[in-house]
Design goal:
By secondary structure, the chain is of the alpha/beta class. 43% of the residues lie in helices and 12% in strands. It folds into 4 domains: 238 residues, Endonuclease, Chain A (2-Layer Sandwich); 46 residues, no CATH class; 261 residues, 3-Layer(aba) Sandwich (Rossmann fold), CATH 3.40.50; 91 residues.
């Protein structure tokens, strides 16, 4: 039999009992950080200590939490659950009367960290008289199963007597842990216990020896309500006041339920997983044999195959198979000297991975640039009112697609803190008018990067129209496609408007996925999608923050469509991914170069230009090919969502100026946003569209300024945003005619207002 309780005492294996390990006679004081604490263990083994301070920590979470979620969903939630389940009260009431009296006297202290996940485990024993000390480390808790060899688990106990480690850990406890600890046995609990003892003493003054405390359910129910209130109102606030918590923790508490649907789904999935493995265990053993034994291998293999297949419906299996393009990014396998990019793609049969990436010759680079030029010339010829500025959107989409496999690495290198990661969006949305050529662009992107146009997935056909919970399951499918381990972009055509307009869908996929990526960088495929743009298109502000949005709102000339279709068909016949294979080699080199400046900011928008190195590589291409940089080459990011929202509110103001009521005492504008309804000629969802489009920073009181019936907007900032002169600012009086200074210079041309720039 293997030795399950492995005890090492002063570097030597030794068999020791619990009483010998926690020797209260030799070391009468104990300071501990443990995971589990049972009343039985306390009563039996720790009652002889003269002084006890025990911090009760947390078990490791089954999922990875962000720093904020560790406070709200782990530490604080568990502390509140302990209160609600009366864990501390039950522990106290199960203690011996001696230990209860020690708790009342402050000799026994049990504490928890309500806002920090405490995973430490160590036990410090000391004797102030003899100056002897003992440090105990390992996997053990203060409960009997940790020391019982009959349990099928391995535990390690490392004991060091009179070791310098004692002072180190004691200082760590005092300086780092104790400031975030609160009493597990609340003052209210101890007061009730003390009152009961005093009442008994008063009623029976001659009685001695019997001082046990037992509280009724009515009393403990009242304690729960009071302790829960204190936990939030006093304990959390106290740590905020002492700056032991970030100032935005209350915001995290307010937002704690935002991902609750996903959390619930994960919990339900774990339950289903457990049900399945329990079932497989049960089926593996003969059901009626007097002495149960494991079945034959072929029987078990068939049962496992059948049960695993049954967990996925034919419909879900068909949806899963729609995703067919895999490109794996493995930076650790990158070898620059051999031009190995770290990218791999499966071979034709999917049996082994092949390196992806190959340097191109100058003639091949030139031919590839001519391919892109031919695509862009098609848009220039056939799109109504095309301009080079408008063409930059198509070119930006191509640059994003080339960069997509490496975005997760760029995000990690360019971020000074996790929040910066949102500046490198994992989502590119092409908001396009019907007939603008958006689907063609998606196919072109597929051909330029993968050499095929078969990787596109039509959003509306992921699940059939009659599928149960079609919307939610479609979003789940997109999430699954992105998390296959591949970094080749997921190409989705015709994303339906509800995805962006309804918070439960866009937030779940875009916001939640980005939050995971910025806190735990890993290969997750970017998503490039198209959606029909119209005047009512909108995104939740938090979604837009994490999305690169390009607006393609001009259409192909209807009279030229036959010619345009023939032209683009012929162009697409010659497209290949030679340039993309070269590009990944060059980008891999930049990623391996510690001197590459990833934090490059757009001069116009101030945004982090996450495509800056891609632009550098493409400029090198044009130089190598001895070709001029085209006028549709974008030098920075396109802020189409910002321009779209500005235009929306500018038009609203100019059309409904009388509805914006000026509030001079706050220099703000009050607008009744409920007027944006069908009755007044707006679309059914216009109120939400305009509310989402209004930046929080322009609202008085932040988010509170854009909620409710009336929105309150900072006047000066609003007028500057929409490009209109503030009518409430008094103009500077012009000097008298005889005081004017005459010069030979022509007067400066007055800057046009937003309205004039937009409509002439």
């Amino acid at each position: 039999m293997n030795k399950r309780i492995h005890v090492v005492h002063n570097h030597q294996n030794e068999a020791m009992t619990i009483a010998e390990i926690f020797d209260a006679e030799k070391y009468p004081q104990l300071t501990a950080v443990t995971g589990e604490l049972s009343a039985t263990f306390l009563n039996r083994y720790l009652g002889a200590f003269v002084q006890l301070e025990i911090a009760l920590g947390n078990s490791s979470s089954p999922r990875h939490y962000t720093s904020m979620e560790t406070v709200t969903k782990d530490a604080l939630a568990n502390a509140m659950l302990k209160v609600a389940n009366k864990d501390a009260i039950k522990l106290f009431l199960r203690l011996s009367s001696q230990l209860q009296m020690m708790a009342l006297a402050g000799i026994l202290k049990v504490e928890i960290a309500p806002t920090q996940a405490l995973h430490s485990r160590f036990y410090l024993l000391s004797n102030p008289q003899t100056q002897e000390t003992r440090v105990i480390l390992g996997s053990i808790d203060l409960d009997e199963p940790s020391f019982d060899p009959n349990y099928n688990r391995f535990e390690d106990v490392y004991i060091f007597d009179n070791d310098p480690l004692y002072d180190n850990l004691l200082n760590h406890f005092k300086l780092d842990l104790r400031p975030v600890l609160i009493s597990y046995f609340s003052n209210h609990l101890l007061t009730k216990a003390q009152e009961q003892l005093q009442a008994r003493k008063k009623a029976n003054p001659d009685e001695e020896g019997d001082s046990v405390v037992i509280l009724t359910n009515e009393v403990t129910d009242e304690l729960v309500e009071t302790e829960m209130t204190d936990l939030i109102v006093d304990d959390v606030q106290h740590q905020l006041d002492r700056q032991q918590l970030r100032a935005d923790v209350p915001l995290g508490m307010r937002n704690v339920t935002l991902n609750r649907t996903r959390d619930r789904e994960e919990a339900e999935r774990r339950i289903r997983q457990h049900d399945l493995v329990y079932k497989l265990q049960k089926q593996a053993v003969s059901p009626r044999a007097a002495r149960p034994k494991i079945k034959q291998r072929d029987q078990i293999a068939k049962q496992i195959h059948d049960d695993l297949q049954a967990t996925v419906s034919p419909q879900d299996l068909a949806v899963e198979k729609k995703y067919t393009t895999f490109l794996y990014d493995r930076p650790l396998e990158r070898n620059i000297t051999r031009n190995q990019t770290g990218l791999y793609t499966p071979n034709d049969t999917g049996t082994y991975p092949l390196p992806f990436g190959q340097l191109a010759t100058i003639s091949q680079i030139k031919r590839s640039l001519k391919q892109i030029e031919a695509v862009m010339n098609g848009y220039a010829q056939f799109v109504v009112d095309y301009t080079p500025e408008y063409g930059k959107r198509f070119y930006e989409a191509i640059l994003y697609a080339f960069t997509a496999p490496f975005l997760w690495e760029i995000r990690e290198k360019a971020s000074l803190n996790p929040e910066d990661g949102n500046d490198i969006p994992n989502f590119l949305i092409l908001g396009a008018s019907a007939g603008s050529g958006k689907s063609t662009l998606l196919r072109v992107i597929n051909q330029l990067t993968w050499g095929t146009d078969k990787s596109m997935i039509d959003f509306g056909t992921i699940y059939p129209m009659d599928a149960n919970q079609r919307k939610a399951k479609t979003v789940q499918a997109l999430e699954s496609y992105m998390k296959q381990g591949s970094t080749y972009p997921v190409l989705i055509d015709e994303i339906e408007p509800y995805f962006f307009q309804q918070r439960q869908y866009s937030r779940r996929l875009i916001v939640d996925t980005m939050n995971q990526l910025v806190n735990s960088p890993k290969p997750v495929a970017p998503l490039i999608g198209t959606t029909n743009y119209h005047t009512g298109f909108t995104m939740q502000r938090e979604t837009a923050r994490r999305t690169y949005y390009l607006q393609l709102d001009k259409v192909i000339d209807n009279e030229k469509k036959p010619v345009a279709a023939k032209y683009i068909f012929e162009v697409r016949q010659g497209l290949d991914n030679t340039l993309f294979k070269d590009f990944v080699v060059r980008m891999a080199n930049l990623l391996e170069d510690d001197g590459t400046p990833w934090r490059m900011f757009d001069a116009k928008t101030g945004q982090l230009d996450f495509l800056a190195m891609t632009r550098r590589i493409f400029r090198e291409y044009y130089k190598l090919a001895d070709m001029p940089v085209p006028d549709y080459f974008a030098d920075g990011l396109c802020d189409d969502f910002g321009e779209n929202t500005r235009s929306k509110w500018a038009k609203l103001y100019l059309a409904k100026e009388e509805d914006f009521r000026f509030r001079p005492e706050k220099n703000s504008l009050i607008f009744d946003i409920s007027k944006l309804n069908n009755f007044n000629g707006f679309s059914a969802d216009a109120e939400n569209e305009y509310r989402n489009a209004l930046p929080v920073e322009l609202c008085v009181g932040g988010i509170n300024g854009k909620t409710g019936k009336f929105v309150e907007i900072k006047a000066t900032a609003f007028y500057k945003w929409i490009g209109i002169d503030d009518p409430h600012t008094k103009p500077t009086p012009e000097p008298e005619a005889d005081q004017k200074v005459v010069t030979d210079e022509q007067p400066k041309k007055k800057k046009k207002s937003f309205w004039a720039r937009l409509f002439g």
